[in-house]
Write a structure and sequence with these properties.
Blueprint lengths: L8 E6 L2 E6 L2 H10 L5 H9 L5 H14 L6 H4 L7 H17 L12
Antiparallel strand pairs: 1-2
């Protein structure tokens, strides 16, 4: 599978299978609701902090899988394995957010970079 970075896609190995992940406008809206963020800028600021819980990572990866055409339930994502363990999951989340938002600074709004 080939991810198209111009469309915000990444590829990631989970449970020994290559998946395409993408945060679409719909999945970003779902993440805004889940993280009680008022807009995409607030969501980006939330993820620009230094902490990321395992539940946060699973939720972002599940949203990315759904946006990539693979609607995997959150409970199933929470049971998946990534190369590198927890560091591997953090890398996937970071790569997905970078593909979605670019290299924005936290104080910049997603709508006003």
């Amino acid at each position: 599978m080939m991810a198209n970075r111009h469309r915000g896609e990444i590829s990631a190995m989970l449970d020994g299978h290559e998946w395409i992940l993408c945060l679409t406008l719909g999945t970003l809206a779902e993440l805004e609701t889940a993280f009680e963020a008022s807009d995409m800028g607030a969501l980006l600021k939330r993820f620009s902090g230094s902490t990321l819980s395992a539940h946060d990572a699973a939720r972002v990866i599940a949203a990315g899988l759904k946006g990539g055409g693979n609607p995997v339930p959150l409970e199933q994502v929470a049971q998946m394995r990534a190369d590198g363990g927890a560091t591997g999951f953090a890398r996937i989340v970071n790569e997905l957010l970078t593909a979605t938002f670019g290299e924005s600074k936290p104080e910049q709004s997603a709508a006003n970079p």
